Amino acid sequence: MTRLFVARTFILLALGAAQLPAANAGVLPEERTDLLYHRYSGDEVTVSGPSLLVRKQTSTNTSVFFNYYIDNISSASIDVRTSGASRYIEERTEQTLGVDYLHGKTTMGFAYTDSAENDYEATSYHFNLSQDFFGDLTTLSMGYSKGSDTIRQTGNPTYLQFADKQSYRLGLSQIITRNFTMGVGYETITDEGSLRNPYRVYSYCNPESTCAARGFAAEIYPNTRTSNALSVRGSYFLPYRAALHGEYKVFNDSWDISATTMSLGYTQPISDFIIDLRYRLYSQTKAEFYNDLFNRVDEFNFLGRDKELSTFDSVSFGTTISYEIAKSGWWIFEKGSLNLSWDHIEFTYKDFRDVPAGRLLGSAPGTEPLFAFGADVIQLFVSLWY
Hints:
The protein is mostly beta strands. It is globular, with a radius of gyration of 23 Å. The two termini are 38 Å apart. The chain has a 16-stranded antiparallel beta barrel. The protein has a two-stranded antiparallel sheet with strand order 10-11. It is built from three helices and 18 strands.
């Protein structure tokens, strides 16, 4: 189930290395090739691998792109350690093929993504549309995505589940002044089908009367979920070739999770270098059916102990350093850049306990230390423009 991990780590935290290029109204994306190496490390989990993105214009109004992405997973996470299972190693591969079409001030984009690992297969379609108005000062964008997943369980050949996802997006960006731009975005996601990880378990008191030990049973999730996110972002260009940028986002879903995200960044060119600094705060409340320790087995209709459904905060800070290379051109390329990105994230959980640490301390169920850990995300990539 590495796809679930990747989704939570790199999409939820917005630190992913492989993101679908967004369509820009009025201008086709530049022709370029990106070669990327990414690495995530935290909670005894390592995710690493390469990614290749190639984009080429086939005519004055059409651009195509292809992205190939690999995740190599080595995991002995808190869930693995709690269950007593051994570290596992998996690989996930993902391919995306897309096209952008420009007509006047309207840009349409379509992409198809296929992802596969030993127990999870996913396909998705993405459509984006954007339009410039009022002398190119205003851009309206909208998008739709539809995905279908096939879920299996290693060691259980009879296990077969399915899940479907749809996403609806709407955005508006506005040039307020020469130096100030703002944008708002709204997204609704609907999930339906098997939404739980077949390997994850919840915890209950065993026996119920004394709670002498933790018992474990397979999680039970609702078969539907609807999520909504609203974001406001802005950029201000400073007079000394620098820029400030920030974003505020609110999130809620039908599982009673609410979350807020605040981020702030600063970009400063220095000679042939561009340095970007960023800071991000994230806070989330728990799902209505989440509990670290239930009173008894099958206490409710839905029961979950996924730490990503618990109450937790995260703080991240990082930097990206870019250096311009091949300024006079090289081979078939007009220019290039070498980029190194690093982010550090600290997770603090408010109602998810570290059961393995509690076993070492001899803690009674429900009194173990609260779980917390730090993680690092590194990206090294080269961009070359044709």
